[in-house]
Amino acid sequence: MINNLQATTVLSNGIKMPWFGIGVFKVEEGPELVNAVKFAIKNGYRSIDTAAIYENEEGVGQAIREGIKEAGISREDLFVTSKVWNADLGYESTLAAYETSLTKLGLDYLDLYLIHWPVAGKYKEAWRALETLYKEGKVKAIGVSNFQIHHLEDVMKDAEIKPMVNQVEYHPRLTQKELQAFCQQHGIQLEAWSPLMQGQLLDNPVLQEIANKYNKSIAQVILRWDLQKGVVTIPKSTKEHRIIENSTVFDFELTKEEMVQIDGLNENHRVGPDPDNFDF
């Protein structure tokens, strides 16, 4: 059982990645962003997920510097992820994008760097750049985001290094069972973005019944389900009480029957773009 906020999974290259973190999608630069990341660090979070397209890497970097100082921890205690955006996919452009992200964050390295979307004809050259960054020791782990099975197969066909992480939309209405099985088979850690389906599941009667049993919120039940499915999860929030609530999922465990009940909510329904039909 994953039983604390600093618990980690071990990636295929031996790097430890926290099971739980905070995402900052659509959180604009400014005090709200800085405070949210600092709240998370203060309350025990050790994983922070951003991306070039979020346009908030500078604020995240500021929050990391201030947060680790206030918490009395070191940079090495954190696991920081960013992603290369579609417009920068390509070998040289991906290398340049990495350096830009690093500069904005004010960091010497990233723990994880991802290709944000599988843009046809571009992601393989970008992957070659990620391999270079990894081999040069500039990033601890490399992976992809929003890749379907056929994208992963295409990358791995020519790759020297397999992706270590695949971050995808994942929640009870989109369980991606086949994709998760494929990732497990190939040693790729699945990670969930939008685990709470942007709030669309927070009045579901099945989830409410389970939540009532444990005296938890529906959000906490979903996040616990993620962890018991072996999926790293990074819910977004800017409110300290919600950041704390989201992380209070280590003092209960869902039964096998409840896990099956939640799995049964799947409708293959996305709130984000379809990776195969995304207008880039």
From TrEMBL:
CDD domains, per database record: AKR_AKR5G1-3
Cited PROSITE patterns: ALDOKETO_REDUCTASE_1, ALDOKETO_REDUCTASE_2, ALDOKETO_REDUCTASE_3
Signal peptide residue numbers: none
Transmembrane segments: none
Domain NADP-dependent oxidoreductase: residue ranges: 31-267
Regions annotated as coiled coil: none
Listed InterPro entries: AKR (IPR020471), AKR5G (IPR044500), Aldo/ket_reductase_CS (IPR018170), NAD(P)_OxRdtase_dom_sf (IPR036812), NADP_OxRdtase_dom (IPR023210)
The name this protein goes by in its record: Diketogulonate reductase-like aldo/keto reductase
